[in-house]
Specification:
Elements (H helix, E strand, L loop, with lengths): L1 H7 L2 H23 L6 H8 L3 H8 L2 H23 L6 H18 L1 H13 L3 H29 L8 H21 L9 H5 L10
Amino acid sequence: MLVDLEKKKTQAERREESERKLFDALVSIINAEGVQMATCESIGLKAGYSRGLTIQRLGKKDEMFVKLIDRMVSETEAHVTQQIPPETNAREAIRRYIDIHFDDLQNKPSYQAYFALMAGSVTDYALLGDAVKRAHEFVKRLLVSYLERGKTEGAFSQDLDSAIQAVSIGSYLLGVALQQKLHPSLDITLLKPAAYSLIPLLPEKQ
């Protein structure tokens, strides 16, 4: 019966399934064993595919890491869009984004693997720098859009520099992710109130 079901899968479905399993294996190895242990051989072995198919689906080592980062950004964008609809007020939108970041750091393996790759890109910028930069530009654009919305709503001061504030919030969230990598036993939820404190205050009444 299982063989019959496999035969009924289209080529596109089989390709999607193999890619998903290979990416899951890549993420698992990065989180459990480290970036250096993520090779085409080890990924294929864990996912149940050959080295050749692994390279065909994910590319060689530098390519697979870039694909993983781009995949994580797409997943995060879809998740944020679902959890923070356009009608959400600015203060709540930023708060929800902070919640998503903390929750994904604790519960989403691909998000955890991204920050392991990001840390590695500091020492090998030529390998992953562009992909990491695209990921961080996505976060910056997202936060700037919320901050600008807040200025339009009157929730934030018109003098607020949205770009600088977005970088400040993003930098703190990045720091939390790196702290988690350095100190796995750290309860990062204790750091969330400080992240909330970076949401701009209500403008003073004249």
